[in-house]
Amino acid sequence: MTVAVSGAHMRTVLDIMRQAAAERIMPSFRHLGADAIRCKSSKMDVVTVADEAAEHDMTAAFLRLSPGAVVIGEEAVCARPDLMDAIEDADLAYVIDPIDGTANYAAGVPLFGVMVAILRRGEVIGAAILDPICNIAALAVRGEGAWLVGADDAERPLRCAPPVPAAEMCGNASWRYLPRPLRDLVARNLPRVMGSWDFRCAAQEYLMLVDGQCHFLLFNRTMPWDHLAGWLIHREAGGYCAHFDGSPYCVTDRAGGLLYAPDRASWQDLRDLLLDPG
């Protein structure tokens, strides 16, 4: 299958995401009954009927847009883990997080997002992150840059924040998911940066990172629907990312954490500050 993932293609992907948000996500926001929310792996890992409906609609739309493609949705994988087997070899795959930050969404907190990554034989070639509240989105095409689409559909380029010393950086370290003793180490070292915060939503955190509104992000869990889109947009906006040990991120990786910074030198400075036991 040959599909040109261009800027025009990504705008069509965004149209699909916006339609799902308008029809499935926003009408239920702050209107969910108790029977519309259920836990998956823990009380912090929840799913709603809106997640499932939005993923269903986007899956159908992407298959119409790209017949023969594979669609890997977070909620579908819960029911069919074997869907993940196609992520590395599919000629074209769409990876969907229908609502990132579902715990916020279910609690009525307006910090959530929709994320889609497009892969060709294991390489991320397109990405989109939508904020349904503000109706803004970050898009990227591999090798062609990253840009923001406003609520009025105006576009502007995205660039990461300029490099600064680690002690002058602000951002988020999602330390609560780190294994001990690494969790204790990061929590102890985090006050050494200029500032930190946690939105409980990778989509919103990536939107800040790629628009130069913060310098770094740190994550432990590396599920593809949570990070593939943000990883490509950050890369195309000029940033640098690697696992905690410095190795590059791969779409099949499920461990090793992710650390984002403006460039490689500032990445190393930040890694030494947050993760060095000394």
UniProtKB/TrEMBL annotation:
PANTHER family: INOSITOL MONOPHOSPHATASE, INOSITOL-1-MONOPHOSPHATASE-RELATED
InterPro entries: Inositol_monophosphatase-like (IPR000760)
Keyword Hydrolase recorded: no
Similarity section: Belongs to the inositol monophosphatase superfamily.
Protein name (record): Inositol monophosphatase
Superkingdom classification of source: Bacteria
Record keywords, A-Z: Magnesium, Metal-binding
Binding annotation for Mg(2+): E74, D97, I99, D100, D226
One Gene Ontology biological process: signal transduction
Keyword Metal-binding on entry: yes
SUPFAM superfamilies named among the record's database cross-references: Carbohydrate phosphatase
Species this protein is from: Gluconacetobacter dulcium
GO molecular function ontology, one term from the record: inositol monophosphate 1-phosphatase activity
Signal peptide residues on this chain, from the entry's feature table: none
